[in-house]
């Protein structure tokens, strides 16, 4: 985590105002929007960590989802360079906060306030993995020379995202609950995972399976993680079996 923070800070310090204002590799976002988002995330994670340690209910957006837009823009009077400086300071504080935590503490649960539930049943360790996801994925979105997703990130995030598919259909989202069937995500450099959706819910297992209602999607572990994160579609990968079901993966499981 700290290495990715340091890499992004170093690269951003080389960017002038025009480059910061240029488009990111994320539709509708410029680079400064991404930096503002990552800065707010660092601040929120440091605050939430203290709340978790004190067993206080906490939320990424304490004011609810309507708070999000203001976190994506510079604060009053800030220049792009000011945002980069503040981003560096926020990352340093988060790195220091997490660096001082003992191993057992990572299993402490996050308690969300009533009426502002968003992340679900997660631990401080999950929160850190979500932060790693942000800096790895948005780091490449910045298009300023950051390295590709690390193997450590892919190995940790892929099983977590697969597990979360069971919750993605149970929470109020835009999923199409009428889509039933089984998708096999087959990693060329790893395991195959079976994701079965039915009226009873979603079951994710580390196994291979076949049948008329099975769609097979083949890719590397990185590509399958990119699919789960909505960065690529099933059509971008090799598919076999029930092609129609494969093409509806994101309708059944909308990306985060």
Your description of this structure?
By secondary structure, this protein is an alpha+beta fold. The chain is 44% helix and 11% strand. The protein contains nine helices and five strands. The chain is globular and about 60 Å long. The mean pLDDT is 93.
Name its key features:
256 residues, alpha+beta, globular
Main beta sheet: 5 strands, mixed
The total strand number stands at 5
Could you tell me the radius of gyration in angstroms?
19 Å
Q: Which structural class do you get from the secondary structure elements?
A: alpha+beta
Number of helices: 9
Strand order of the largest sheet: 3-2-1-4-5
Strand content: 5-15%
Give the SSE order as H and E letters.
HHHHHHEEEEHEHH
Large-scale geometry: globular
End-to-end gap: 21 Å
Low-confidence stretches: none
Mean pLDDT: 93
Roughly how much helix do the residues carry, as a percent range?
40-55%
Topology (SSEs and partners):
Elements: H1 2-12, H2 17-21, H3 31-53, H4 80-99, H5 124-141, H6 151-168, E1 181-187, E2 192-198, E3 201-205, E4 214-219, H7 221-228, E5 238-241, H8 243-247, H9 249-252
Parallel strand pairs: 1-4
Antiparallel strand pairs: 1-2, 2-3, 4-5
Helix pairs in contact: 1-4, 3-4, 3-5, 5-6, 6-7
